[in-house]
Amino acid sequence: MKRSLILLAFLAAPTLADTLTFKVIGIDCASCAPPVKKALASVAGVTSVKVDTDAKTATVDVPSGFDKAKLREALSNAGFEASFPGEKQSGIEPLPANVARSLDIVRYDGKSALDIGKVLAPGKITIVDYYAGWCGPCNVLESRLERYMVAHPNLAIRRADIGKWNNAAASQATHFGAEALPYMHARIKPGGNSNVT
After folding, report:
1. In this structure, are residues 116 and 185 in contact, taking their beta carbons and an 8 Å threshold?
2. What would the mean pLDDT of 6-24 be, rounded to a whole number?
3. CATH for 2-83, options being 3.30.70.100, 3.30.420.40, 3.40.50.720, 3.40.50.10350
4. Is the N or C terminus of the chain more exposed, i.e. has fewer CB atoms within 10 Å?
C-alpha cells in the first residue's frame, strides 16, 4: 500500500518545466507567426508555443534542462534563427560557402530574359527570384531561403539580377507584375505558377 501511495504521488507530481522566451530573427510581420509556431511545435518536448510578432519573440514551454539546439535547428530549417538571452544577436548569417554551393541555386546576370520553361528544375518547386545586389530585403530573403532549402531539397531557386531596373530581367519581372523587390515567380508544377512580392 505504501509503495502504491508513493507511486501515485510521483505520478501526480507536476513535471518540472521551463518557459523560454527568445528572439526570432527573421520575423518581419504577422504572416511569420504560423511558420514559426509550426516549426517550434514540431520539436519533441515542446508543449506550448506563443509568438509575439511585434516583439519578434517566441515563448515555449519545455522540460527542465531542454536542449535549446533543437529549437534553433527547427527555426533554421524554417528560414529563421533563434537568439537566446545572453547571446549576441547578429541577424541571419549567410550559409557557409560549401553548404550554399550544394543547394540548387543558379544565378543569371539579367542581360536577357529567362526562358522560364528551360530554367525549371525537373521534379522540384522552382522559384525565380528577381533581385538586385543593392536591395537589402533581397539579401535577407536570399539567406532565409538558403537556410530553408537545406531542409527542403525539393526546392530550386533561379536568381535573375534586375540591375537598376534597367535590363531584360527587370522588364520580365515587370511583365509578371513586379512593382517592388524582392519579387519571386514560383512554379509549383509545369504550367502552374504563383507570383509573390
Report:
1. yes
2. 67
3. 3.30.70.100
4. N
